[in-house]
What we know:
By secondary structure, the chain is mainly alpha-helical. The chain has one domain: Rhopdopsin 7-helix transmembrane proteins (Up-down Bundle). β1 and β2 (about 70-80) form a beta hairpin. The protein is about 75% helix and about 5% strand. The protein has a three-stranded antiparallel beta sheet with strand order 1-2-3, sandwiched between helices. The relative contact order is 0.14. The longest helix is centred in the N-terminal third of the chain and has 34 residues, at about 85-120. Mean pLDDT is about 85; it is low at about 340. It contains ten helices and three strands; from the N terminus they run ααββαααβααααα. The radius of gyration is 24 Å and the shape is globular. It holds the Pfam family 7TM_GPCR_Str.
Amino acid sequence: MMLFGKIKYSIQLISFLVSLVCNFVLIFLILNKSPKKMGSYKYLLVYFCCFSIFFSILDIIVEPYIHSHGSAMFMMMELRHLKFAPKFAYLLTTLLCGCFAISITTISIQFVFRYFAMERKGRISYFRGKWLIIWFLVPFITGTVWIIQDWIFLVPNDKMSEYISDTVFTNYGINVTDITYVGCLFYPPDENGIPQLDFKQLIGFLLFGFILSTTFWTVVIFGVKSYKLVRALPQHGESEYTYKLQSQLFKALVAQAFIPITFLFIPIGLLFTAPLIHLDFEPASFLVTIFYSMYPAVDPLPIMLIVADYREGLSELFDNLRGKRTNQIGSSYTDQQATSIS
């Protein structure tokens, strides 16, 4: 249990540091190396980077454990110094859950933008001026709805605390009184100890599922449409530079979509659904916890490495840093020689 805790915290800490470095570097590249044809898309990318930084900070504060057991699924936070303020700890945990909703909504909006930009029918104007502000607000609205649903459907209660107490102590060595959690128990036992479906939890599951499925199918539908448009660009007389840029942006976006699908959509979706349909995914809980923390660290990598302007800017940045280091070493060596001669 101690080894698991150390491994988990080490991965979360490394992910936090990598996320800060990568996202700040990407913001610098976006603001200084973006081609003019990027238009307002670069503001969407900066917005996404800022959110990833917030996600990372919140994740290292909460240090979440995501777990599935029997007919229960939950994200828990060890109270430690917040034992006197469990409501505040619960708020932090719900905010981290809200980050999941914001993330999947933001990536779906990027797919809509790329499609509008490539179809050339004037609808890209909906991502300019006041419309751009509205698009920025949509993920926050989705995240807020998700958090409100947490407070309605997934609050800690005595039945669930009793149900998960043994698995929390067995797997993590923590008493259930020393944690707060966001979670659901689909089949709580009745007065006779017989599991019965909790329809309130089922309604909550359906509402969460609606947000998940809406964002997922938005990515799929607009991803397919964008792919068809990218392939048709040369036939419409677009310049080679435009074709390459749009292809790079689309490839980066596909990679960016693959990351949340791999690190968020599938693991969280399976872990959330398994208790409802009596599947045991408890052994996978550790991997889901790690994947959730790694997501903001790996998410900026595709756009940095696939888009040529950013890749060249990153290489130039490394060359400048290496050049300064070499000059410092050379200057120090010259000073030492001068001192030796004196």
